[in-house]
């Protein structure tokens, strides 16, 4: 996602300032560029609905049928991660990730509310 | 339900109507009547447009009533909670959720994926990635006390 700035940097004052703003916004993320050269861990999650299972309750048209589950590999990789607490916790632990700061802010608000709410 | 109303502007009305079964007085009649629309007209059109949908499926519909009392409407896909309850095989979501309360149902990720695909077709979802919509569906499931398993 790192764009080359040299090509547009001199095309006019307006674009220069926009690029400068974008530089600032992108800088944290650019440090967080993930190194995909390391081999990804093989997915260990196995679906409870193997290929061929009818996925009930999805169809709501008269002339349609409930979809049938495909093989696990036919689904995108991210699907197996959205329910994975480890992935989520890794993002929260990573200080460059937005989730980290959102969670920190959330905890700070809770702590603050707890202190204010002195109804003992 | 929003009512934007400088005099000649359209007003919006958001309702959830069972497919093929429009016209009861309580939800639809008064809401449309207030805006000067004959509820029978709407119901005929709605039932006609939803004749391919399983009878009784709740469908959110957004009705735009123009200043001259003509109306157009858009139907969207059923609510996520409807899909989740059917997928988990339960009638109602949980009364209470949280670590002290057991789950009331279970869905797997492939069902979530299929639900998200249906939702993606809605107009309002155009800017969301399928992954984002899936996360949303998972969130709905959790708030209903439905466990999401692989």
From TrEMBL, chain A:
Assigned keywords, A-Z? Mitochondrion, Ribonucleoprotein, Ribosomal protein, Transit peptide
Under Gene Ontology molecular function, one entry of this record is: structural constituent of ribosome
Q: Where is this region: Disordered?
A: 98-120
Localisation per UniProt entry: Mitochondrion
GO terms under cellular component: mitochondrial large ribosomal subunit
User: What are the Basic residues biased-composition ranges?
Assistant: 98-108
Q: Which InterPro entries match?
A: Ribosomal_mL54
UniProt lists the family membership as follows:
Belongs to the mitochondrion-specific ribosomal protein mL54 family.
Name the UniProt record assigns to this protein: Large ribosomal subunit protein mL54
TrEMBL record, chain B:
Any Pfam family from its record, for instance, is Ribosomal_L11_N
Record's signal peptide: 1-22
Output the Gene3D superfamilies linked to this UniProt entry: Ribosomal protein L11, C-terminal domain, Ribosomal protein L11/L12, N-terminal domain
Q: Does the keyword Ribonucleoprotein apply?
A: yes
Task: Kindly state which keywords UniProt assigns to this record, in alphabetical order.
Answer: Ribonucleoprotein, Ribosomal protein, Signal
Q: Tell me which residues make up the Large ribosomal subunit protein uL11 C-terminal domain.
A: 76-148
Q: CDD domains of this UniProt entry?
A: Ribosomal_L11
For this protein, the record's InterPro entries field holds: Ribosomal_uL11 (IPR000911), Ribosomal_uL11_bac-typ (IPR006519), Ribosomal_uL11_C (IPR020783), Ribosomal_uL11_C_sf (IPR036769), Ribosomal_uL11_N (IPR020784), Ribosomal_uL11_N_sf (IPR036796)
Q: Where is the Large ribosomal subunit protein uL11 N-terminal domain?
A: 14-71
Q: What is this protein called?
A: Mitochondrial ribosomal protein L11
């Amino acid at each position: 996602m790192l764009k080359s700035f040299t090509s547009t940097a001199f095309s006019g004052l307006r674009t220069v300032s926009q690029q400068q703003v974008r530089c600032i916004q992108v800088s944290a993320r650019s440090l967080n560029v993930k190194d995909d050269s390391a081999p990804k861990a093989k997915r260990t999650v196995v679906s409870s609905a193997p290929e061929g299972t009818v996925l009930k309750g999805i169809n709501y048209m008269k002339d349609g049928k409930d979809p049938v589950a495909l093989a696990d590999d036919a689904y995108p990789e991210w699907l197996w991660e959205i329910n994975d607490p480890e992935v989520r916790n890794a993002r929260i632990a990573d200080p460059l990730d937005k989730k980290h700061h959102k969670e920190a802010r959330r905890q700070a608000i809770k702590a603050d509310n707890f202190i204010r709410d002195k109804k003992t | 339900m929003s009512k934007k109303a400088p005099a000649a502007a359209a007003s919006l009305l958001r309702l959830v109507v069972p497919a093929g079964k429009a016209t009861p007085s309580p939800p639809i009649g008064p809401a449309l009547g207030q805006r000067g629309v004959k509820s029978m007209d709407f119901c005929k059109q709605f039932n006609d447009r939803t004749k391919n949908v399983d009878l009784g499926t709740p469908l959110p519909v957004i009705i735009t009533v123009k200043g001259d009392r003509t109306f157009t409407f858009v139907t969207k896909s059923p609510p996520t909670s409807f899909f989740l309850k059917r997928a988990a095989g339960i009638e109602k979501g949980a009364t209470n959720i949280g670590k002290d309360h057991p789950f009331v149902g279970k869905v797997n990720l492939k069902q979530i994926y299929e639900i998200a695909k249906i939702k993606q077709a809605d107009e309002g979802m155009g800017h969301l990635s399928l992954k984002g919509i899936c996360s949303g569906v998972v969130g709905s499931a959790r708030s209903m006390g439905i466990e999401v398993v692989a």
